[in-house]
Amino acid sequence: MTQTDASFDIPETLAACATSVLTTADAMEKTGRSRAYAAEWFRRRKAGDPMPIGSCPPPLQPARPEAPALLSPREVPRRRPGTTAGRKALLHAVAHIELNAVDLHWDIIARFTDVTMPIGFYDDWVQSADEESKHFRLMSACLETMGSFYGELPAHAGMWRAAEDTATDLMGRLTVVPMVLEARGLDVTPGMIEVFRKAEQPDAIAALETIYAEEVGHVAYGSKWFNFLCGRHAIDPKDEFHRLVRHYFHGALKPPFNEEKRADAGLPPDFYWPLAEEAGFTRDLP
Ligand SMILES: [Fe+2]
Ligand SMILES: [Fe+2]
C-alpha cells in the first residue's frame, strides 16, 4: 500500500474508521484517511491481531467538500468527448464517482454491523475503499495534468440515493451498489479508455486501465457476499437479485453489457438480461 499518511490517528474499531472517513469533507483528507485506515486494517490482520469491527453509526449522508457544486443530472452541462473540455469533464465525472465510491465502501462497513458477517467481508470492502481512494487520486492527478482539479466543474447530485434507499437492507445494498452500479462501470470504461487513446493521453489511459482492472474485484465482492447471504437464508440468488433491483433501483439496466468482465465478476447473464428485457431491450442470442 502506498500514498498513506501515517499522521492520522487510527480509531480503535473498523466501524469508527469508516465513520471517520464518512464525516471528513475534504477529498484529499478523506482519501488519505481511507488509505491509512486500510493499511492499518491489513497490517493488523497480517499480524494476527485484527482491529475489532465495533459499531459506530455512520451519518445518513457523507461529508463532502464545498466544491464541486452538486446539480441534478439534467443540469450538468454535456460536453462532447472529442474536445479537451469534454475529456476534462469526463475525468471530473469519474473523480466524482470514485470519491462517492470511497464513501459507499466505508458506509457498507459501518452501516450493517448488526449483521454478523465473516471477517473476509470486511477485508473485501476495506480493500475496495482503499482502491477507490487510489482511483480518486489518479483522476485528480490526470485533471491536474489538464490544468484542472476536482471541484472545478459541477457534479451530479443524487449519487448517494442508492445508499439511502438501501440503508436498512444489506442485500439490497449489495444488489444496487456493486452488482448494478459498479457493474455498469465495467460496461462503460473501455469506451472511455478509447477516448483517451484517441487523444493520446497516456496518464489517463493508464489510470483508467487500473480502475477497470480493480473494479472487476468490487463487483466480484458484491456477487460473492450476495450469494453468501442468499445461501444463509436459503433463497434463490437470481430471483432475489431481480426482486431487489426492481425494488431499489430507479432506472433501467441498459445494454451493451460487458458480458466477459461481468462473468469474471460472478455476474451471469440471467441476472441482468431479464431486467434489461423488461425495460424493452432485446438480446441477440448466438
Ligand atoms: Fe473505482
Ligand atoms: Fe469500485
Write structural notes for this entry.
The protein has about 290 residues and is an all-alpha fold. The chain has a single domain (about 70-280), classed as Ferritin. It is built from ten helices and two strands, in the order ααβααβαααααα. The protein has helices spanning about 15-20, 25-45, 85-110, 120-145, 160-165, 170-200, 200-230, 235-250, 260-265, 270-280; strands at about 70, 155. Strands 1-2 form a two-stranded parallel ribbon. The protein is globular. Bound molecules: fe (ii) ion (FE2) (2 copies).
Q: Which range best describes the helical content: under 10%, 10-25%, 25-40%, 40-55%, 55-70% or over 70%?
A: 55-70%
CATH architecture: Up-down Bundle
Instruction: Please report the first level of CATH classification, the CATH class.
Output: Mainly Alpha
Output the helix-strand order.
HHEHHEHHHHHH
What's the mean pLDDT score?
Answer: 95
By secondary-structure content and strand pairing, the structural class works out as: mainly alpha
Strand order of the largest sheet: 1-2
Low-confidence sequence ranges:
none
Computed CA radius of gyration, to the nearest angstrom: 19 Å
Q: What oligomeric state best describes the polypeptide chains here?
A: single chain
The helix tally amounts to 10
Taking the sheet with the most strands, its summary is:
2 strands, parallel
Mass-distribution shape: globular
How many beta-strand elements?
Answer: 2
| CATH topological fold name | Ferritin
Strand residue percentage = under 5%
Count of individual domains: 1
